[in-house]
Amino acid sequence: EVDWEVELAAVIGKTGRHIPESAALEHIVGFTVANDVSARDWQMQRNGRQWLLGKTFDTFCPLGPAIVTKDSVTDVHDLRIRCSVNGRLMQSSSTNQLIFKLPQLVAWVSQFVTLRPGDVLLTGTPPGVGVFRKPPVFLK
């Protein structure tokens, strides 16, 4: 039950740990788009409903095709984000709908791990993933 999740991805450009929200954007070099591919059967039924395994199969989480530098983005919380599957629009939203804003996300993650250049943080997906459609729709 392979599903899609379009997400804004922030690319880390500066090492940091315990980063305050006020300095979080200084650690980002740019942005790209990610498909946080998820095996819903592995997330919701197998392996004790442990979510991580359903997102870690080979070829999951394609990124790109390009990184947009931070200085070329006027407002990271006002970007369109969309996902089409076989030409059909499945997700369409804006980063202004993110539950956790990017500085909050960077600060939170950096409490637990040291962020290093090249690390990628995914920010969350808007409505429209396949598992919650009636009936559910999955990639083939």
UniProtKB/TrEMBL annotation:
Superkingdom: Eukaryota
Gene Ontology MF terms in the entry: catalytic activity; metal ion binding
One example of a Gene Ontology biological process annotation: small molecule metabolic process
InterPro entries in the cross-refs: FAH, Fumarylacetoacetase-like_C, Fumarylacetoacetase_C_sf
Domain (Fumarylacetoacetase-like C-terminal): residue spans on this chain: 2-140
Keywords, comma-separated and alphabetical: Metal-binding
UniProt xrefs under Pfam families: FAA_hydrolase (PF01557)
Keyword Metal-binding: yes
Family of this protein: Belongs to the FAH family.
Protein name, as recorded: FAHD2 protein
UniProt source species: Chauna torquata
